[in-house]
Amino acid sequence: MNKTSIGTGKSAFVTGASKGIGYAVAQALAGAGYQVTITSRNEQEVTGAAEQIGSSVRGVVCDVRDPKALQQAVDEHVSAFGGLDVLFVNAGVGHFSNVKDMSVEDWDTVLDTNLSGAFYTVKAALPALTQSANNGGGYIFLLSSLAGKNPFAGGAAYNASKFGMNGLSEVLMLDLREDDIKVTQFMPGSVATYFNGHTPSEADAWKIQPEDIAQLTVDLLEMPRRTLPSRVEVRPSRPAKK
């Protein structure tokens, strides 16, 4: 199948997509023919990102911690594009410190964004995705992390959110398979993104690139409906030596 045509007449909704993995996924989906809505909390960034990707992309300000704002954003997407076929749950944050030093506010921010935000996003999109499934579509991707099974010191909130994301993803897969909605969780290791204030550079060349996750997304959308890679672990081929 020609990748430039798999999304013809279809649409996708990608959270946390003003840069990094979300941006790369939105760019790849737009290139594959999808009409795309991207979200971010920063109006200037999300508007600029949408303009850079192309005319088939809408940029919307939305905080995934706000279920009402998410529902409005999804409803506007459906109104603009006539439906919703692909959901990519990507928005996430990280605060890292020893448990004794972590504030309640930082804990809440990470869990509310990474885990509750994922649940709110899926809930808002399910009616439209169910309708898409009735017409041969309906796919949810959730970005988790290898931190969802490999705890590390200082990662209490982030690890908890990603362990929870893995559980949520697997339950969604089981709950929604009878509705013909496919669910895949990505669990990448080190990715060259802007996460947690990092600025990608040549020193990150060994890491997974956002475009690699985007390519996986498009590749999985091409797979026959009968086949579901429900969990995809992704690692750098040759990690940097410590």
From TrEMBL:
What highest taxon heads this organism's lineage? Bacteria
Sorted keywords for this record are: Aromatic hydrocarbons catabolism, NAD, Oxidoreductase
Which InterPro entries does the UniProt record give? KR_dom, NAD(P)-bd_dom_sf, Sc_DH/Rdtase_CS, SDR_fam
Q: Name one Pfam family in it.
A: adh_short
Please list the residue ranges annotated as the Ketoreductase domain: 10-194
**Which family does this protein fall into?**
Belongs to the short-chain dehydrogenases/reductases (SDR) family.
Name this protein carries in UniProt: Short-chain dehydrogenase
Q: Which organism is it from?
A: Deinococcus piscis
- Lineage of the native species? Bacteria, Thermotogati, Deinococcota, Deinococci, Deinococcales
